[in-house]
Amino acid sequence: MKSVAVLVRDGLSLFEFGMTAEVFGIDRTDAGVPRFDYRVCAEDGPRSVVTKHTAQVSVQATHSLAGLLDADIVIVSASLPSRCSDAERRALLQARDNGAILVSLCSGAFLLADSGLLDGLSCTTHWMYADQLQEQYPSVTVVPDALYIDAGSVITAAGTGAAIDTLLHLVRRELGHTIASAIARRMVVSPHREGNQKQYLEVGVPATRDATLGPSLERVLSKLAEPHTVGSMAALACMSPRSFARRFAAELGTTPHQWLTSRRVGAAQELLERSALPLDAIASRVRYRDADRLRLQFVRALGITPARYRHAFRAGAEEPAAGRPAS
């Protein structure tokens, strides 16, 4: 059982904290999701932690900072931007030394930076705080556009809703696409969102979203084995290719080609986990001409070969027939 410890403090933001509880604090073993040892940790805990919200809402920390020390994953939840206490700093550094994956949500990046855990790394935070974080901690490189940045043992998330993207990415990285998708379905969210924080800045953000894109993209996803171009996708949305590409970028923060590539790689992930199909057959199902082309795109997207991915994340699929090489 993986242990997940969340560091909370007064001034806590309920949304980001709530996402940690939603992803790791609910028993979903009936959906094939492993149970987590979920801990809520605060200095001088167990105690009530006051939130930043106008109503007098509090959260009960179940553990002291000692709950961080032996956790597999330590999440620094969002609170008002501030520096670490000496006790929090010692606990975070000890957790790092003990091999924990460290994750900050929104302004939680300030605590990691103040502990020196982001020195020399690229990181992100809420776009509202990006300049402040960079000014206070010049030894880190703040990337204000990113939804999240995965630096291996340290992952930093952008503001508020990016907590969902980041935590599902963490689950996908550690436990596989199938588990992440199962949690996402229960949360009624996409397992992977395209784009970045640019679409949420206070300049150039559309007041409304285009209702014509969703149905057309659903049709594309239902037929990934068929050829799709910007022109054909635009026709499904009853737009010109130029208008479609422009609106697509405005809505999703990416290009149609990049989106389609990511969806095909995602479909390949599911087939690698759930089937014993050889890679050529999977490539055909997601519209790549051969296994080599799929392998190239897979490594570009995920940094791992399909064979290694299947070995790590295969979930109950039949073993390949004797004598047949692994894909």
TrEMBL record:
<keyword id="KW-0804">Transcription</keyword>
<dbReference type="Pfam" id="PF01965">
    <property type="entry name" value="DJ-1_PfpI"/>
</dbReference>
<protein>
    <submittedName>
        <fullName>Helix-turn-helix domain-containing protein</fullName>
    </submittedName>
</protein>
<dbReference type="GO" id="GO:0043565">
    <property type="term" value="F:sequence-specific DNA binding"/>
</dbReference>
<dbReference type="InterPro" id="IPR018060">
    <property type="entry name" value="HTH_AraC"/>
</dbReference>
<dbReference type="InterPro" id="IPR018062">
    <property type="entry name" value="HTH_AraC-typ_CS"/>
</dbReference>
<dbReference type="InterPro" id="IPR029062">
    <property type="entry name" value="Class_I_gatase-like"/>
</dbReference>
<dbReference type="InterPro" id="IPR009057">
    <property type="entry name" value="Homeodomain-like_sf"/>
</dbReference>
<dbReference type="Pfam" id="PF12833">
    <property type="entry name" value="HTH_18"/>
</dbReference>
<feature type="domain" description="HTH araC/xylS-type">
    <location>
        <begin position="214"/>
        <end position="312"/>
    </location>
</feature>
<dbReference type="GO" id="GO:0003700">
    <property type="term" value="F:DNA-binding transcription factor activity"/>
</dbReference>
<dbReference type="InterPro" id="IPR052158">
    <property type="entry name" value="INH-QAR"/>
</dbReference>
<keyword id="KW-0805">Transcription regulation</keyword>
<keyword id="KW-0238">DNA-binding</keyword>
<dbReference type="InterPro" id="IPR002818">
    <property type="entry name" value="DJ-1/PfpI"/>
</dbReference>
